[in-house]
Each structure stands twice: as structure tokens, then as C-alpha cells.
């Protein structure tokens, strides 16, 4: 649990009291590759912290294909945030792309702690600001204004993530077919 608390403290330092209250509701869990942490159509019940492994955040499009929006590796905090906030079934699934060890904490209890511990609330706000506003905005802009090739070249600059993904995950993330991805890869090599 030390990595979990250290990662939180990078956003905002927690008091001993808030740390103890948070750890009281946390549980370590394990998900095998391809196992769902969250299923679309269900109301999300947990926030997660990835201790080891990689997960993908995806939805199913009108053709029944998985469309990956984000990937979360070690030391990140995936959650079906919209589902949790609205307390209703969500559109996204979270799947283990590798065997994963996670710390999970129930959304309801966690949100109750946010009202009682200012420092925990500050962590939450800073995490959301950085990861769901500051880091997400360039991604949304790139989806509208960059080609799949340009987005692929950016992904190549993240070898720790790129080397862990299957080609069909990359194609889905870029919004192209696996055949189109093969063409892009060939074009870059030529």
C-alpha cells in the first residue's frame, strides 16, 4: 500500500488520519488478463490503483467493436468516473490487458471520506484536474486535428506503453482498422 499512498502524496500530502481512514476501505485484488474490472452497462462501484499490470478503458461502437479511449499502467488510478458521479450504468468497460494487481476502494465510502478529509478532497481535485482536464485536453484535440499517423508517431514516443499493447489495441485507440495500422507502420519504416 506504500506505493498507493506515495502516489497520492505526489498530488497532495495526506494527514495520518486521512491515510488511515483511506487504507481502512482499501483492499488488494487481482485480475487475470482479459478479466473485466468494470463492465459497461453496470454502475461502477470502485476506484482502482494499479500496482502492477496494464488496463484499457473502452466502449463498444455501433459495429460491436471495442474502441479504446485510454490505457492505465502502474501507479495510475482508473475508474469509470462518470458512472460513479452520476451513480448510473456507464458506457465504458475497464479490462485487464495484462495480469494486474490493484488496490480497489469502494466509491461510496471513498466519496464519504472526501467530505470528511480536506486533504483527501484536495488530492481528488488535483488528480482530476491533471488527468481528466490538463492531460486529456490535448488528446481530444489530437483526435480532431491529427491524422492517425501523427497520433501513432506520438504513441511511439511512449515505449513503456507502446511495447505492452497488442496491435489491435493500438489500432482501436487510433480509430483505424488493423489493416490501416499495418499500412501506417509500413509507411513509417519506408
Automatic annotation (TrEMBL):
CDD domains: CAP_ED. Pfam families: cNMP_binding (PF00027). PROSITE patterns: CNMP_BINDING_3. It comes from the Bacteria. InterPro entries: cNMP-bd_dom, cNMP-bd_dom_sf, RmlC-like_jellyroll. Residues 10-131 form the Cyclic nucleotide-binding domain. This is Crp/Fnr family transcriptional regulator. It comes from Elizabethkingia bruuniana. The lineage of its organism: Bacteria, Pseudomonadati, Bacteroidota, Flavobacteriia, Flavobacteriales.
Amino acid at each position: 500500500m506504500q506505493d498507493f499512498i506515495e502516489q497520492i502524496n505526489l498530488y497532495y500530502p495526506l494527514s495520518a488520519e486521512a491515510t488511515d481512514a483511506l487504507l481502512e476501505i482499501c483492499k488488494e485484488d487481482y485480475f487475470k488478463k482479459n478479466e473485466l474490472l468494470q463492465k459497461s452497462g453496470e454502475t461502477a462501484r470502485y476506484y482502482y490503483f494499479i500496482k502492477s499490470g496494464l488496463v484499457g478503458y473502452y466502449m463498444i461502437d455501433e459495429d460491436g467493436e471495442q474502441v479504446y479511449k485510454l490505457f492505465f499502467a502502474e501507479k495510475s488510478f482508473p475508474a469509470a468516473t462518470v458512472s460513479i458521479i452520476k451513480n448510473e450504468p456507464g458506457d465504458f468497460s475497464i479490462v485487464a490487458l495484462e495480469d494486474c494487481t490493484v488496490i480497489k476502494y469502494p466509491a461510496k465510502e471513498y466519496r464519504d471520506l472526501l467530505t470528511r478529509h480536506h486533504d483527501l478532497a484536495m488530492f481528488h481535485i488535483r488528480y482530476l484536474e491533471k488527468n481528466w482536464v490538463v492531460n486529456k485536453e490535448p488528446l481530444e484535440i489530437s483526435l480532431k486535428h491529427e491524422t492517425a499517423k501523427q497520433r501513432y508517431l506520438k504513441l511511439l514516443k511512449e515505449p513503456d506503453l507502446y511495447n505492452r499493447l497488442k496491435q489491435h489495441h493500438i489500432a482501436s485507440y487510433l480509430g483505424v482498422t488493423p489493416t490501416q495500422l499495418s499500412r501506417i507502420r509500413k509507411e513509417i519504416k519506408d
